[in-house]
Amino acid sequence: MNSKPEALTMETLVSLAKRRGFIFQSSEIYGGLAGFWDYGPYGTELVRNIRESWWRAFVYAQPNVVGLDTTIIQNPKLWQASGHVDTFVDPMVDCKNCNHRFRADHVAGFETKDLSKYDEKLAATKCPNCGKVGEFTPARHFNMMFKTYVGPIDDEDHLAYLRPETAGGIFAQFLNVLESSRQKIPFGIAQIGKAFRNEITPGDFIFRVRELEQMELEYFVKPDKAREEYARWKQYCMDWVLGLGLDKDKLRFYDHEKDERAHYAAESVDIQYEFPMGFKELYGIANRTDYDLTQQGKGSGKDLSYFDEATKTRFVPYVIEPSVGVGRLALALMHSAYTEEKVGEETRVVLRFNPEIAPVKVAVLPLSKNEQLVPLAREVFTMLAGKYRTEFDETQSIGRRYRRQDEIGTPLCVTVDFDSLEDKAVTVRHRDTMKQERVKIAKLPEAIENLLASF
Ligand code: ATP
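A: This is the predicted complex of the input protein with adenosine-5'-triphosphate.
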């Protein structure tokens, strides 16, 4: 009866996201800015829920993971040591005919570190914009880090970068965390925060943006345990995104060939999701070996090795890194949740979010704007609002209010009607089945809890 439309397009999601207040173009009244998006009221709730779910799964559920919150701007030496200043680059080409700029790997359809391989392929490739063949400039590297100046002098000595990933701050604080939290290897440090990448071609809505938010775990292990831990985290990430509600048949692992992974990574894999434009990276998981701590040790002159009391040996830990973008995951979740179904003559659009991430858990709806119903409905709202994100809505017909809640993915609607004044009960409507049941107001919190758990 209900289904995902055959071809759920990005336009459909963009339009729903704007109409219902999930996502707006940043500074839209000025025409926006390419690669920057704002979250509206429901989008803000959605991404908060995603972050909280990640934090529960990757920090609270772990016996040995602690959180960290480092600054966006760090001493620029950190990014020299990490290699970002020299190698955080994407291959770029221009079409000489239409002057459009592209990522060479996107046009070529493969990734390689050898720029000449792009040139070979692109010599016989059509420009995706104007269609002319063989008009591309040679591929060259473009550094994606945003630059800024710290302090009142804007010269090279005061140059700094907006972090291109959150991980750098974690490696730089490795010793402080180790000493203050008394962790032993294996242990992890988790961080959620903004990162900035001056992407050559931002696009596909919030899939590729220039200001993004990442949820990253750096899990430090003994070198000989790295392969095993890598395999464990790879599966853990997949299980977590499945649990959040992504369609199973739209997910797959994509193991990187040697030529595709960073030079220091021993193994890396993407969890790919089938977005409207095809299978693309959602989640990256890598065994980054001892590269990061070794480099930061060299760059800072500090010893970032670890002394293992049990074996009386000293080593530089290997690190396993699962990294995912909050926005990219929000887009995949909206895509998986979107369904349409025919109800009579109408099409009912429902975002079947897992209640854990649904922006609003319960909507309280007085049947009409009646002077007796509204105060009772307010009381019901107050009973629930401290625990769940609850919305109170008294405008329009009840049918239209249900449709609105369906479109933002609210699992439960509670309707206060004239009988409620007599029987002290309300009607609870289930988003997916549209089934309604009568519940005593006194028992409502318990019933809501059970119903939310039943999805
Ligand atoms: P790509 O090859 O698509 O540019 P990447 O391999 O550079 O991505 P990582 O450095 O592995 O990406 O970043 C980890 C995660 O951060 C990605 O899996 C993705 O979820 C998110 N991410 C990275 N870049 C962006 C971006 N520009 N916009 C939105 N999310 C991003």
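The mean pLDDT is 96. The longest strand covers residues 211-221.
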